[in-house]
Amino acid sequence: MHSILITGCSSGIGHTVAHGLAREGWRVFASARAEADVARLRAEGLSDALQLDVDDSASIERALAQVLAATGGTLDALFNNAGFGQPGAAEDISRAALRAQFETNLFGAWELTARVLPVMRAQGHGRVLFNSSVLGFAAMRWRGAYNASKYAMEGLADTLRLELAGSNIYVSLIEPGPITSRFRPNALAKFRAHVDWTHSVHTEVYRAQIERMEKPGPAAPFTLPAEAVLDAVRRALNARRPAARYRVTFPTHLFWWLKRLLPTRWLDAVLTRAA
Q1: Which of 146, 151, 206, 246 is catalytic?
Q2: Is 146 a known active-site residue?
């Protein structure tokens, strides 16, 4: 039985991928930050669910030790999925808020990956997946902290892929566009916590952004369910030679091609209209 550790499984993409792979015979170590979510995951049938807070080095160390004790020291795959979006104009994001964005979206994933790689080298194989975003290569307004964290993730993952060439350890980026999840409610909470929007030069823009984030149902065209990401993860795990990137949703494919084909000024105009 193949084994995989997935971060950020309390809801959304992580929750869907964990259950989907478990149904397909994987031994899934579904992790979540809150103990209540871990208990719920176990009650749902993910018996190997465990607590892991990617912002906490000690938690990462404990969780990985727990996984390796359960598997006898092996781990076939890692899916770095935990993350959140910090909305706000770049000039309104404090250093503390930007640091928090990177701690969760990048630094925790990188520390966990660095701890897993010796295990994969010792066993002679492995798959490392990073949940990036269309915003990891196509920046949009009012999402500067999130854009930056995903751009950095893509750079590090690309570097790691090159450095692991010939090791039988493969690195893939999953690049979703709009996906049904709790991303918007969570982002709204971060916005209210870290952006003094009523005193910003962007106050009127923020009013529209808040309305969008509060809107029930999909807020963007071409939104797909989290099962679309499960399909990409499945392909990355099962391919003999997995791709470097798996793009999910029409906007991701569209902006990938537009970035390759359009001059920067034209692309800026398109991205400005899309934000």
Answers
A1: 146
A2: yes
Percent of the chain at pLDDT > 90 equals: 93
H helix and E strand count, the chain: 11, 7
Give CA–CA dist 97/100, Å, rounded.
5
What does the alpha-carbon distance between residue 75 and residue 70 come to, in Å, rounded to a whole number? 10
Query: Which tokens go with 7?
Result: 């971060």
- Please give the order of strands across the beta sheet that includes 77-80: 50-51, 27-32, 3-6, 77-80, 126-131, 169-176, 245-248
Q: Long-range contacts made by residues 50-57, C-beta under 8 angstroms, separation at least 24?
A: 52/7, 53/108, 54/7, 54/8, 54/82, 54/103, 54/104, 54/107, 54/108, 54/109, 54/111, 54/112, 55/100, 55/103, 55/104, 55/108, 57/111
Query: ∠ CA 103-105-110 to the nearest 5 degrees?
Result: 75
In which band, very low, low, confident or very high, does the pLDDT at 219 lie, cut at 50, 70 and 90?
low
- DSSP β-bridge partners for residue 45: none
Q: How far apart are CA 216 and CA 213, in angstroms?
A: 8
- 209 or 4: which carries more pLDDT confidence? 4
- 190, pLDDT greater than 90: yes
- Residue 216's pLDDT is 81
Is the separation of the CB atoms in 37 and 15 below 8 Å? Answer: no
Question: Average pLDDT over the chain, rounded to whole?
Answer: 96
Domains observed in the chain: 3-85+94-180+222-274 (3.40.50.720)
Average pLDDT of span 84-109: 98
Give the model's pLDDT for residue 224.
95
